[in-house]
From TrEMBL:
It comes from Pantoea rodasii. SUPFAM superfamilies: Multidrug resistance efflux transporter EmrE. The keyword Nucleotidyltransferase does not apply. The chain crosses the membrane at residues 34-52, 64-85, 91-112, 119-136, 148-168, 180-198, 210-230, 242-259, 265-282. Residues 4-135, 151-280 form the EamA domain. Keywords: Cell membrane, Membrane, Transmembrane, Transmembrane helix. Signal peptide: none annotated. It is a multi-pass membrane protein. This is EamA family transporter.
Length: 301
């Protein structure tokens, strides 16, 4: 039963990738980003505001940290994904999004002073080779003649943004309950998204895009994180994180079934290499350098 919590959360996030793709033709990226987090902010208000008030002093002391986390996790990550959806397939978005665990580990080397391991080295190289194979559609030499597409760059920037969000969350360890911290981050996210929303050419809600906003604002922003947190509490963080590796597979299946996207050989090869690299980086913990043996003084000397 406990396994269902992260599994359903991952399924919801996979469907949200499809929602992001569908939104490309029905609503401005700035509009869905703003509406999504505004909806989450309003729905969570009765549950989170009392706790936010009780922890107002801790919030005030960490205001700029919460602002940066809101920028990385709520603004850049999703906004860049919505813009990328205009030129990148849902399958590609799912695979590029699956690099978040690897990017998190790589950023941890510098931000958290994480010791490098063989898994990080081998997995990083394998994932990089997989991404090159993927974005070049199985012809790496063509990347020498043309630059990486804007959509792919946006998705990689989005993944990097969310990876940095996770690393900074761990580094700062803000002394707030999870939902109060998230609520303040969402509040800052809405504020930061407002200028883009006001400048968007069309922010009209209609029968086509309202369901997309509702899914993104309720299921992807509230229900999935709630289930994920339950999974972490019941299974532990390391076990729960493994479920993120299902995202590209779930996304690809849904994209083929409902968006009629085509899976090509380069998707299987590049995506497989990337996913194996991520798993190796997560699971192979052998350090690159053996710790120096310390010689203890002889007490009889």
């Amino acid at each position: 039963m406990n396994l269902l919590f992260p599994l359903i959360a991952v399924m919801i996030w996979s469907i949200n990738t499809i929602v992001s793709k569908l939104s490309a033709g029905s609503i401005d990226p700035a509009a869905i980003s703003f509406y999504r987090w505004l909806l989450a902010l309003l729905v969570l208000a009765p549950f989170c505001l009392p706790g936010v008030w009780r922890h107002r002093h801790a919030i005030k002391a960490n205001l700029w940290r919460l602002l940066i986390l809101g920028l990385l996790g709520m603004v850049l990550y999703q906004s860049l994904a919505y813009y990328a959806a205009h030129s990148v397939s849902a399958v590609m978005m799912g695979i590029l999004g699956a690099t978040i665990p690897l990017l998190t580990i790589l950023l941890s080397l510098f931000v958290l002073r994480l010791a490098p391991t063989r898994g990080i080295l081998i997995g990083g190289l394998l994932s990089f080779a997989g991404l090159v194979w993927l974005v070049s559609e199985g012809n790496p030499t063509q990347l020498l003649n043309q630059r990486l597409g804007n959509g792919e760059l946006m998705m990689l920037a989005a993944s990097t943004s969310y990876a940095l969000y996770g690393v900074l969350t761990k580094r700062w360890a803000i002394p707030l309950p999870t939902w109060q911290s998230l609520y303040v981050q969402i509040f800052f996210g809405v504020l930061l998204l407002l200028p883009g929303f006001l400048r968007a050419p069309d922010v009209t809600l209609n029968l086509l895009n309202i369901p997309l906003v509702l899914f993104a604002g309720l299921f992807a922003s509230i229900i999935a994180p709630f289930l994920w947190i339950l999974g972490v509490q019941r299974l532990g963080a390391s076990t729960t994180t493994i479920f993120m590796n299902f995202v590209p597979a779930f996304t690809a299946i849904i994209a083929v079934l409902f968006l009629h996207e085509q899976l090509h050989a380069y998707h299987w090869i590049g995506g497989g290499m990337t996913l194996v690299g991520v798993i190796l980086a997560q699971r192979l913990k052998t350090p690159l350098r053996k710790p120096r043996a310390t010689t203890l003084p002889d007490p009889a000397a």
